Amino acid sequence: MPIPSPAPTRAELIDHLVRTRIAGDVATPRDNNLAHYRKLANGDRHYWLGLELGDRWNDEQDVLAVMAERCGVVDDPEHRTGQDTIDPALTVDALDRMATVLRKAVEGRRRVLFATGHPGGLLDVHRTVAAGLRAAGCEIVEIPGGLQADEGFVFQFCDVAMLERGATLWHTHSPAPMAAILDGLAREGRPLPDLVVADHGWAGCAGQRGIDAVGFADCNDPALFLGEAEGTLQVTIPLDDHVLDPRFYDPMTAYILEAADLTTG
Which domain of life is it from (predicted)? Predict the structure, then answer.
């Protein structure tokens, strides 16, 4: 069931995000960020996360500018190594935009699909928000059985779709598992989701196919931020998507639920 109130205030959440390094001085180093921005700009589709970016972002300095604006990384192109950052205020701003999307989903009794390529970090965030939406009257989309992608199986646990390989929940940036879900629903003649809440290629694929999508993204995963800038994704939330202890995300999840009016108690 959803985490009950009270949720942290905005100031309390910002302090928590910085202390736990979900935002602020994050673990991902600057050189890794810049390498990913460069590979995306050079057309490496692994870094496109299911989006079709064409040649619109073939200058890594343009990618950096968007990441500085929407994620809060250092905007100086000469800063090549060492610490990089996520602006916690931008994280909370994005959570507020996400909450608006979730409130509209409740008002419209929309069909919502949850999925994660980061089960070790974000599974409980997705699970808890899904439970809140279900309790508020939304339909949580049940995926078809027997789906396969990327040499693994796409399955659903606690209302969240994930990739399983070798009896292990798999960390994946690939859009293929989401494509398998959407194609599987179409084959069965079932309606597609009205909204997808996900991360990585799961969110990118859904947005590219014209489905309203909200995605969590780290500072070394620029594609979803570019997708939001272009309007392909509704919201992209900047955060370190795999910190030391997944319980560190609990206050953030409580904040989302309260902001979206999904709390109980």
Answer: Bacteria
CA distance 244 to 247: 9
**Are 239 and 92 within 8 A, CB to CB?**
no
What's the number of domains the chain is made of? 1
Kindly state the tokens that stand for 183. 């194609």
CA 131, CA 140: separation in Å to the nearest integer?
9
Q: How open is the CA angle 139-142-143, to the nearest 5 degrees?
A: 145
Joined tokens for residue 196: 């997808």
**Is residue 264 included in any domain, yes or no?**
no
Q: What is the pLDDT of residue 5?
A: 54
SS3 content of the chain, % helix, strand, coil (to 5): 45, 15, 40
Contacts of 54 (CB under 8 A, 6+ apart): none
User: For residue 219, what is the DSSP state?
Assistant: T
How far, CA to CA in Å, does 29 sit from each of 35, 38, 69, 128, 138? 10, 15, 18, 30, 39
CA–CA distance, 149 with 80 (Å, rounded to integer): 36
Domain presence at residue 265 = no
Distance between CA 155 and CA 179 in Å, rounded?
13
Name the pTM for this structure.
0.95
Q: Which domain holds residue 22?
A: 10-259
53-73 per-position pLDDT tens digit: 999 999 999 999 999 999 999
- The tens digit of pLDDT for each residue in 184-193 reads 999 999 999 9
- Integer Cα distance of 199 and 211 in angstroms: 14
Whether residue 77 lies inside any domain: the answer is yes
